[in-house]
Amino acid sequence: MTDLRPLMILGCSSNSGKSLVVTGLCRWFARQRIDAAPFKAQNMSNNARVVDGGEIGVAQWLQARAAALEPTVDMNPVLLKPEADTRSQVIVNGVSRSDLTALPWRERGPHLWPVMTDAFERVQRAHDLVVIEGAGSPAEINLPDLVNNRILDHVDAQAILVADIDRGGAFAHIVGTWTLVPDATRQRLAGYVLNKFRGDASLLAPGPAMVTERTGMHNVGVLPMLAHQLPDEEGGTLRADAPAGAMRVAIVRYPYASNLDEWHLLPHAARVSWATNAADLDAADIVILPGSKHLAADFAWMRERRIDAAVRAASDRGARIIGVCGGAMFAGDRITDRQGVEGVADASYECLGLLDLTTDLASTKTTRATTVRFGAVPAPWCALAGIEAAGYEIRHGQVDGAAPSCAPGVWISGNALATTVHGLFEDPAVVAAIIGVRPQPVLDATFEQLADAIEAHLDTALLRDLVGMA
Length: 470
Hints:
Elements: E1 7-11, H1 18-31, E2 36-39, E3 42-44, E4 48-51, E5 54-57, H2 58-66, E6 78-84, E7 87-92, E8 95-96, H3 98-102, H4 109-126, E9 129-133, H5 146-155, E10 158-164, H6 170-180, H7 183-186, E11 189-197, H8 207-215, E12 218-224, E13 248-252, E14 257-258, E15 271-275, E16 286-289, E17 291-292, H9 295-304, H10 307-316, E18 320-324, H11 326-331, E19 334-337, E20 347-350, E21 357-373, E22 388-401, E23 405-407, E24 410-413, E25 416-419, H12 428-435, H13 443-457, H14 460-467
């Protein structure tokens, strides 16, 4: 491997565009024939993907794909998956750790730091260059920071700071962040990027020059607001305009909905909207119940808003109902949590009863890639017959029952379909079979678009110099 210096992308805040910039850089470096791998020591998201038997945040999965690499758990060794406002499941090296989940937040650091550094070293040994994504802001002075400042210092990376100029106050964010970070970070902050800019960049003067004068950081460039199709690292992504007359699809968005990124292709074929109230389902041709990181809390939320009754009513009037993972469990008869996986032992509650399925939560978590091969499929799902689609499973629930199965992990009863397999709707053939419109894949074109933006708007000579490219 070549001896290139790691490059770290820090942000003045969450949602400043760190993930987008790292994704674009991974594809841009790949164009330069540099074997560049992504790394994020700790991520927080309920959007996760299965790789080599474990799970990582979707951002690093996408970044690896942009770099034309097979994603590994080392690229995101610690993943926090929120289960409540004050509780997150801790995933270490791809595997759920109940012991660390139970620890107070400030006591986890000594256990997680060696995991982070060991994973980084494995990634660095395997690749020419590591492009590191920070988390939140490095200037959170009230918190012990392993993920930004300590990693940056430990691996002796060069760093670029990204600010979201669309929010306003970007110059203050940049200078304020530079002022508050530790000396070791300040010495490594080589430059800054103004992200999500709309308008004439010449009007920014003399701001960039003043920032450079105050901080010594180079102005690496101004990235425009991009109309891209990169799925969000957290939450859901509905970025496309469906064709005229397309079906109406409502996705129920409960508080702890998970893997919402897997629906990023659907808006290219249907009119898709998030449903947070019962009335949001009234006109839907298809209602989707997505995954859930906390089944009990999300189903209680549905009952409180009478969305459970609205789903049944939609089914009664002929709308098709699709449940995926946690949504499949909601579509069944009952969920039981004898071991207290979600915090209350021996909890049990009735669900929607659209399929003859029952779910028992197990302390052992299933995380695996899988392929679904649809056999004979009854109406109104006949078009799925013969399709083979890749997906993945991330779940504590063990689903069983008498509902007819047309493939392992897929059950159909009338106009209701349930599956424990995520990712099927990222296959254009599956979307076409259910919606009637075949969308074009968008991810690779998006990676190219982001790399084009890096080439056009950033100082690529400086990028080469920072990592030590000849």
